[in-house]
Amino acid sequence: MNSWWDLGEWSGNTGKDLSTHSIECPFCSERGNFDTEHHVEKKQPNGNKVLNFDTLKCGNCASYVMVFWSAGHRLHSYKVLPWPLNKLEKYPEYWPEAVGRYWLQAKRNLKDGNWDAAALMARSSLQVSLREQKAKGNNLKQEIDHLAAEGILPKIIQEWAHNVRELGNDSAHPKPDQPATPPEDAKDIVGFMDYLFEYLYTLPKQIQEYRARKNS
Ligand SMILES: [Zn+2]
Fold it and tell me: How many CB atoms lie within 10 A of CB 114?
């Protein structure tokens, strides 16, 4: 999205009116139980588009959320502030199951400060993902090098991988004198994992959706 005026043009929920049933209260987690307390809108200077600024009140806990939303031809999309924090309940449904399962555990462990476990789960998630791409090698770094040589991963990701220390570890066989994982190393590998999955799963899906829109 290059401009806020593009909100609701390419992706979002069906319909031209704000549907609150998918909005979750960030304070009590109740979904879709909102009354509109305040609504203002701003019309596009040289077009038909409208940006809406709503304040919603939760019917369950009486807290407020601000919803910025706009509708395109058939869809509308919104941004909510504040949003629910630390909701690590699911991974995108288009990810492979094992990749997502380990990813979730890596993220949860990172949130809780379990650095060894976060790094271990991130390595497991990456391992499943790289193997699925038919990577070869004795550790994750080598597998990333292999995929880069095959042209499946770009050079910039390969070079980044060489700076992520945890990728070189063999976590499946810890030694008795295995040092603790520093918090920075755990955060580094989880950050790398997030970007890699954006590249491997989210970007292709967005391109596919874009093509489907063009052809429809
Ligand atoms: Zn609430």
Answer: 17
Indicate the helix (H) or strand (E) that contains 149.
helix 140-149
pTM, full prediction: 0.69
Q: How many angstroms separate the alpha carbon of residue 72 from the centre of ligand 1?
A: 29
Tens digits of residue pLDDT in 84-118: 876 788 899 999 999 999 999 999 999 999 999 99
Residues 55 and 38 sit within 8 Å (Cβ to Cβ): yes
| Cα separation values, 42 from 24, 45, 52, 164, 182, Å | 25, 9, 6, 46, 49
State in Å: Cα 196 to ligand 1 middle: 35
Ligand 1 centroid, distance to 63 Cα (angstroms): 6
For residue range 22-47, what is the model confidence (pLDDT) as tens digits?
Answer: 899 999 989 999 999 999 999 999 88
Residues, Cβ < 5 Å to ion ligand 1: 25, 27-28, 58, 60-61, 63
Residue with tokens 């994982």, as numbered in its chain: 181
**CA 67 to ligand 1 center in whole angstroms:** 14
Element (H, E) at 75: strand 75-81
Any idea which residue has 């990728």 for tokens?
Answer: 167
